[in-house]
């Protein structure tokens, strides 16, 4: 019996790779260190108020005009989507102790983006439903990958109960951030210095960021002619968007201008107090009526970030394929959004990288 293809990483690229392999009758298995599937795709709700809806603490949008792979997949899976709300004025907070400026953006200045009803988790769940449940091995942290001979690879992993487990594979798809591969996994034989440098030089998308989502009874700012889009030089949120579900409650989410070390020094409670104060400054007294706040600091997630990810990115990272040469050629393939040159950092990039990885495996 031939060994399966082992996919390490149960995020979007890993799940898509698994559905493509199984559709071609190729046996595979997914290992992931987390206790859940989805990776950086994380749609969360307040368990005490589930009626408010799910909100994306990871990726949120896609752009169907340019991102054809995800647009096609959404149609195939019959997923419900809706357009991101952008109608109305934006706010610009230029100085502390000064009222925000109100600007009407030119028509068509914002490219149409689309969100998932029920969050990006609906895409993750739809892919998972196409796979047998015994294909997943969660809470399985890969530590060593050893080339046993020309036909097999031994993968060793630590389990949640403290035990270790070995898996046999004919090929491996590394569908997780390259920096995590370099930090957490030992390869026998070892990678070349050039390949290790390639891995560490690809910053993990969103790894230094945090996301705060503040939920209200309704999107009250729309009644004031505001889109929910705001930009701030004051902070703590640097960029704010309407995160409201298609119907029901209202929500605003923001990306932080505050550095990871500053967020950690303040602590989550104080950070979120500053977030609420900022939204009141921008959107008025109605922003005081908060139903719940969801928060995820990716920089302290050990399954996402390494210490180098706490450094603020100055430019868009140089993403692209990671060529494998030497003894590991034809045995290991990289996938994940950081390995896509055109759509790196996007859901589209994760999907395209999965398609390329599977094509590579099949052709070999």
Description:
The chain is of the alpha/beta class. It has eight helices and 21 strands. The strands form five sheets. Strands 8-7-17-18-19-16-20 form a seven-stranded mixed sheet, covered by helices on one side. It has a five-stranded parallel sheet with strand order 10-2-1-14-21, covered by helices on one side. Strands 13-12-11-15 form a four-stranded mixed sheet. Helix 1 (12-23) runs parallel beside helix 3 (121-128), helix 1 packs parallel to helix 8 (347-363) and helix 4 crosses helix 5. The longest helix is centred in the C-terminal third of the chain and has 17 residues, at 347-363. The two termini are 18 Å apart. The mean pLDDT is 94. It holds the Pfam family Amino_oxidase.
**C-alpha termini separation:** 18 Å
Number of helices: 8
Structural class assignment: alpha/beta
Number of strands: 21
Rg: 21 Å
Largest sheet: 7 strands, mixed
Strand order of the largest sheet: 8-7-17-18-19-16-20
Shape: elongated
